[in-house]
Amino acid sequence: MSTDGHYLGVFLSNKQGPRWQAWYAMSEQEQRAKNEAGLAALAAWDEDHKDQIVYQGGPLGPTKRTSADGISDVVNELTVFVVVRAPSHEAAAKLFENHPHFTIFPCDCVDVMPLLGPHSGD
After folding, report:
1. Rounded CA Rg of the chain
2. Which of 20, 4, 29 has the alpha carbon at shortest distance from 105?
3. Confidence class of residue 120 from pLDDT cuts 50, 70 and 90?
4. Which of 121, 120, 114, 86 is CA-nearest to residue 3?
5. Confidence at residue 3, expressed as pLDDT on a 0 to 100 scale
6. What is the pTM of this model?
7. Are residues 23 and 15 in contact, defined by beta-carbon separation less than 8 angstroms?
8. pLDDT band for position 2 (50/70/90)?
9. Edge-to-edge strands of the sheet including 109-114?
10. What structural domains does the chain harbor?
11. From residue 10, how far is each of 7, 21, 58, 60, 78 by CA, in Å?
């Protein structure tokens, strides 16, 4: 199993959980201030990790699920994704410690997993 040092970070958040409830309970002005602080912190995280970021990724939108039963709209906890390079799985996970998506924004966590197989484009 070769990962070539590439890892997928997927931020998860329960969009009906307490963190989002607290976000929506804030005034528009409070949300705007928190959003500005969060975006500045994300830009700083991106800059600090620019050598490890393989693919910037981004926010994930509404989900359609296709199965043997057809196509349906579903809600899941997938929120944002990014692909990073690191010497180990542990090192990749450590890149996300104290990340703004869950220290400022209402994401709950980030799952980090190796990308298996060949990679191209970097």
Report:
1. 16
2. 20
3. low
4. 114
5. 59
6. 0.86
7. no
8. very low
9. 53-59, 78-85, 6-12, 109-114
10. 6-114 (3.30.70.1060)
11. 10, 21, 10, 10, 7
The helix/strand/coil state of 22 is helix
Query: Quick one: three-class SS letters along 61-77?
Result: CCEEEEECCEEEEECCC
Dist CA 17 CA 74 (whole Å): 17
Residue type, 85: R
Structure tokens at 30: 């409070």
pLDDT tens digit sequence for 31-40: 999 999 999 9
Q: Where are the alpha helices (DSSP H) in 12-122?
A: 18-25, 28-48, 89-94, 100-103
Q: Which two tokens stand for residue 102?
A: 């869950």
Residue 64 tokens, joined: 């359609």
